[in-house]
Amino acid sequence: MSDPFYQPVSGFDLPRFAGVPTFMRLPHVGLDDPKIADVQIGLIGAPWDTGTTNRPGPRHGPRQLRDLSTMIRAENGATGVRPFEMVNCADIGDVAPNPADVQDSLRRFTEFYKKVKAKGVVPLTGGGDHLCSLPILRGLASDAPVGMIHFDSHTDLFHSYFDGCMYTHGTPFRRAVEEGLLDPKRVVQIGIRGTTYDREDRDFADSVGIHVIPIEEFFKRGLEDVMAEAREIVGDKPTYISYDIDFVDPAFAPGTGTPEVGGPNSFQALQVVRELEGVNIIGADLVEVSPPFDASGGTAWLGVSIMFELLCVMAGSLTR
């Protein structure tokens, strides 16, 4: 049972449009606050998009995600899970990037997540572009490689962009495999689709044993069957979850930089996370929400709803 301090503010006590917006109306506890010792799951903002190669904007994602998250309530209406009563959760703030220097930002993120791990906090991150996942993994998986279930329309396994640029939102998991952060045989990528330049990324996946499930296979086999295989691939060992909002069809999530048509709907976007029940989750992220392309906030609302589903399965992972 969680400490009452870590309960979110109720809409019955303060209207949801009032007060300082933290993730899911949780208390803010900084990494240097003594109370951090009691936090089990920390919600973190990663306001950085210097890895973006097309439409920028995800640096503004965490702020909009926080604002829309004031509509999250105490109980999961589908599963009955009440995560805030199971574990101590807090908003532990934003990682501070250097918007003018990719390498300095990567170092800042890595050090932040190393500190998160040292404090015994399991991170749930709202991004930010997908390059954010690389330094998160550097912070969490420096001791041993981990598995990963990755929802996306792109593999993010490319070698480089623009004649040798090695660090973009299209390269994080290539680097993570090369650096020994991911065990490729325990990595599954779900929802891959769209036009391509070539098969370089897929050839790399085949060469190291990453399992790629294209969207056509996802729909042909069915969600439950695909997710059962994903759970089998990662097994019971430590696993990271990375969720790019462009996994979802842009009809339901237009606010993203590199949308691809033909994806899952918003219900399926939530359902795949519910199928993670039983996975040994050491951290998760929801990335690539870009407010300039959906000022109404609909994409961010779906994003934080996915984050709540992730929180529910993460709470279950910690309390099993």
From TrEMBL:
Pfam families: Arginase. Keywords: Hydrolase, Manganese, Metal-binding. Mn(2+) binds at residues 130, 152, 154, 156, 244, 246. Its EC number is 3.5.3.11. The keyword Manganese applies. The keyword Cell wall biogenesis/degradation does not apply. Binds 2 manganese ions per subunit. It comes from the Bacteria. GO terms for molecular function: agmatinase activity; metal ion binding. Its cofactor is Mn(2+). It is an enzyme of class 3 (hydrolase). PROSITE patterns: ARGINASE_1 (PS01053), ARGINASE_2 (PS51409). InterPro entries: Agmatinase-rel, Ureohydrolase, Ureohydrolase_dom_sf, Ureohydrolase_Mn_BS. GO terms for biological process: putrescine biosynthetic process from arginine, via agmatine. NCBIfam families: agmatinase. Belongs to the arginase family. Agmatinase subfamily. This is Agmatinase.
